[in-house]
Amino acid sequence: MEKDIKTLSKLITQVENDPLSARKIIKDLDKKEAIVIGVTGPAGAGKSTLVNVMIKEYRKLGYKVGVIAVDPSSPFSGGAFLGDRIRMKQHFTDEGVFIRSMASRGALGGLNDSIFDVIELMKGFDFDVIIVETVGAGQTEIDIVFVAQTVLLVLAPGGGDEIQMLKAGIVEIADVFVINKSDMTGADALELSIRAMLEISERKGWTPPIVRTVATDGTGVKELIEKIQEHEKYLVESGEIKERQKRRIKKHVEHILRNRINRVLDESDGESVEELLKNSIRKICNYPR
Q: Looking at the predicted structure, is the pLDDT value of residue 59 above 90?
């Protein structure tokens, strides 16, 4: 199989449209380990601009970077609605960067069911860093913790949403706090709020650092990359990386089983409950892996 961008794009489309075909495709790929970074936070925090400059920093380090920008779904086509790739268009001619928009397709956790398989495909195409930018963060949109090794929670002062997020407990998913637009009034107050929350939290081991950035001019992004690398080192040295891998695999299998169950139920044709249960178990186990 040719490991070029065109082939990868076609495979991602196939996996999105037919999730049950993913297992066979991915099984035949030689995959490398990659850093998977989740970028989440409220709308307007500047996540896409931040990801854009993170790409630049990782490319300076010689890393091949894949980006999955998860957008709200169009109510008409079901496809990605915002199209964050437009904001990162300067990287389109860089063969070491691949950017793909994915629709959330109404997933309650904020992520499309295909996200796990798309990440595996990117690993199979030799990306060193995979960045997943979510549609946003709310009390239900926390599935990024099952996908990423390191989660960045991006906040910006002045909007009010950041305080609501602190109250909602969404901060529990963050491995690194990013105060973007930190040149704006209110950045100091926001940092104090985060520090106060961290003081009363019951976290063990890693204490999330707070990094101030101004993504529009690149301020603080180099420090942010360093903090991500420190967290990756911590995960390996503490052994927590294995626990996160277990968590990711369990969630991935849950998504696979859900897809297979839905396929079986869609194909059912008037069986009784007992017959449907019996046939469902047999069909679920026999679907191509």
A: yes
Q: Would you call 97 helix, strand, or coil by DSSP?
A: strand
pTM of the model: 0.85
Domain at 5-239: CATH code: 3.40.50.300
Q: Are 73 and 106 within 8 A, CB to CB?
A: yes
Angstrom CA distances, 79 to 43, 102, 286, stand at 19, 7, 30
Residue-wise pLDDT tens digits, 226-274: 999 999 999 999 999 999 999 989 988 887 787 778 777 777 776 777 7
Q: Are 212 and 191 in contact (CB under 8 A)?
A: yes
Q: 3-state SS of 17-51?
A: HCHHHHHHHHHCCCCCCCEEEEEECCCCCCHHHHH
* Every domain of the chain and the residues it spans: 5-239
Rounded distance between C-alpha atoms, residue 256 and residue 105, angstroms: 16
